[in-house]
Amino acid sequence: MKSFWLFNLPRHRYAKTGYWFVLPYVVFFGGFVAYPLIFSFILLFHRWNIVTPMEWIGLKNFERLLNDPLFFKAILNTLKFLLIHIPLQMIIALGIAVLLNSKLKFRGFFRAVFFLPVVVSGVVVTILWQQLYAFDSGLLNRMLTAVGFGRVPWLIDPDMAMLSIALMATWKNVGIYIILFLVGLQDVPRELYESASIDGATRARQFFRITLPMLRPTFVVVVVLSTIGGFSLFVEPYVLTGGGPMESTLSAVLYIYNQAFYFNHMGYAATLGFVFALIILGVVLLQRKVIETEPTT
Amino acid sequence: MSRGYARKTLLAVSVCALMSWIGCNNPRGPEGAGRSEVVELTYWPAPNPQEVQLADTLVRRWNRTHPTIQVRMQSIPVSQSTEEVLLAAIAGKTTPDVCSNIWPGALHEYTRAGGLIPLDQFTDFDSIALARTPRDLLEPFRSEDGHYYQIPWKTNPVMMFYNLRMFEEVGVAKAPRTYSEFFAAAKKLTRDLDGDGQIDVWAGERDIRPIWWQRLFDFYPFYIAASGGKTLFKSGEPDFNDDAARIVFQFFQECYQQNYFPHTYFQGGDPFLLEKKATHFSGPWEVATLHSLAPHIRYDVAPLPVPDDYAGPVYTSGDYKNIGVFGTTKHPREAWEFVKYLLQAEHDLLLLLTTNQIPVRGDLLTNPLFAEYFRQNSKMVRFAEQAVSTRGVDAAPDLKEILDAISQEYEACAVYGKKTPTEAVNDAFRRTKVIVEWNK
Fold first, then answer.
1. Mean per-residue pLDDT for A82-99?
2. What's the DSSP call for residue A200?
3. HSE-CB for B359 with a 13 A CA cutoff
4. For residue A8, what are the domain limits?
5. Do A246 and B401 touch (CB under 8 A)?
6. Are strands A46-47 and B69-73 parallel, antiparallel or unpaired?
7. A136 — contact with chain B (CB < 8 Å)?
8. Of A103, B206, B221, B239, which is most buried, counting CB atoms within 10 Å of its CB?
9. B349 to chain A nearest CA, in Å?
10. Do A22 and A161 share a domain, yes or no?
């Protein structure tokens, strides 16, 4: 029998050995992806509070969802967060990346400093910002009052709270996007700037006519990653505001979490999650369509 | 030979040892005669130290006088809430025979899971229950199917504590009885003491966070008071889209709009204990807290304020804790005997003495057995008087989420003034209906 050269095993033996190699992933996939997905699908049609037996209720979870103003409010809040957070994050990340790409003293130090919040635990960062944002005793309001301004209701004004969360989330995540933009900036060929300079283009004109178009693929990555990150907004409102005031910071994921683990409505939470996943799918498909129809160079 | 002998000796010793062990452990042996007839019950009281102490005393007494029905007391395992523990126990079929910490708001969950037995199956239920509790107090605890799965045991009526020194300082002689009287007093009580333009003491204060159980100390008791004893449900359907709910939302909106209540969450401790607010809505446990943590505060207790045009007895809500027998019991009759024992008048006196909580009895102020206690604890008389006009929560499904929905509307209307009382009540009612329909 002809043996296979790598392990000196017969071909069919080698093929069987292959299954053992993929087994850990199959077990992981089965336990942590396939099983929860199938179970969630079953839950869509049941009422279940974890401890008592599941109860078949047909499409009642969907019926409730259609009459649930809080879910729609949570979706709108999440979209509001995305609208503030994504542009803010892109502008700040690009600005800092351009600075860090220039010849700067202690450039390595600054690059590390801007990346530091990314590696710190989200809960720790949020608790620190809670102290900064506190209305009566927070550091930000103390600084403002020290220079003669009034106190800002960062987290207790329904019109202000989501903006405050977006600011904090931007500070926390901007480091990763700075790195992405830095990589993109370093990929722009130097000779383009050289020839533009010879042609008399100003630095601003070079930025808008060369840098920005050349960064389009990076923008695509940043938009997609920010969108996914933004849709999963949870830790910040959970720790900072609990979803308030007046549910103004209740994100979709926080609402799903509350339904599942605060009210023990597993079936309804699964339904909310299912519909939310469809909404994300729709947004991502739309983004892809818009981005892919535009020229990349 | 010697090996065979050793084997036989070993066998004989083993048989003797086995027989001695069986003999010593035989429940039908001379010393254990009748042991197999001893019924064992498990009883779960609330896990707080006072109630564990009370349960321990009661169980010891019972076990001494009932050799054939022995009770094992074990406090409810500590968790986030008793309700979670009991639901988990029902699912795992590890419930006790008797529990004295049944919150009526969770009863629907327990009965839906088949956890409790109807107590009115026992022929003497009516006579026992009515001898202790007036019918109008007992009736709200009847389930939708007409059965009683719980028997009311104790309650903590929510009333208004007020600081006598602060009232005297601004010349308010008596506790406000109506909303107008409350506002008139609140205008005087809310003050800037050091002239820095910031308010230092308030007429009242409530936790502004939309936490569901906080409504059990503001909207809910005030609604019961304003409506003359109504609760949120009637015949299993939500029934609070009415003038009483609107006027209560209006009352709290006024309190915040006029700055009689602060728009902030106090983190430095209880503002009533710190004398930063003049009134406080709470239950009888506050008497012990004030006695131990702030004995210098002079205070009194009064019924909750009611709308100006309200006439009749002032009702309030009470945090009822009731007794139930679980479906896993193998000895329902014996368990019922133990329940009856817990409800005896002398044990109600022990409940008062040990925990300062009010037994749900109609004769608290007329039965000479309790006279000495109330003579020594004059503040508790107010709560005993109020107890007969106290309502619990409805045994409705998802009451926690319903109170959460009301909390959010309360926040929008009262605290932030972003909705009118009519809008807030309508929205709370609509959301409640959706929750109730989903549960059918």
1. 93
2. T
3. 24
4. 3-43
5. no
6. unpaired
7. yes
8. B221
9. 37
10. no
A36 and A169, same domain (yes or no):
no
- Summarised one tens digit per residue, pLDDT across range B219-259 is 999 999 999 999 999 888 999 999 999 999 999 999 999 99
Interchain contact, B113 vs A263, CB within 8 Å: no
Cβ contacts (< 8 Å) between B408 and chain A: which residues? Answer: 70, 246-247
Judge whether A54 lies within some domain: no
Find the farthest-apart pair of alpha carbons in chain A and give their distance in angstroms, rounded. 90
Picking from B308, B318, B270, B315, the residue whose alpha carbon sits closest to that of residue B163 is: B270
Query: CATH number of the domain that A285 lies in?
Result: 1.10.3720.10
- Is the CB of A58 inside 8 Å of chain B's CB atoms? no
For A263, the closest of B398, B427, B434 (CB atoms) is: B398
Q: Is there a cis peptide before residue A245, judged by omega within 30 degrees of 0?
A: yes
Q: Is the CB of A263 inside 8 Å of chain B's CB atoms? A: yes
Shared domain for A215 and A72, answered yes or no, is: yes
Chain B residue with minimal CA distance to A258?
A: B401
- Do residues B345 and B51 lie in contact, with contact meaning Cβ atoms separated by under 8 Å? no
Residue-wise pLDDT for B63-78, tens only, equals: 999 999 999 999 988 7
Look up the pTM and report it.
0.81
Domains of chain B in start order, with CATH, are 35-149+321-359 (3.40.190.10), 159-317+394-439 (3.40.190.10)
Which tokens hold the place of B82? 């008793």
Two tokens at B402? 């319903």
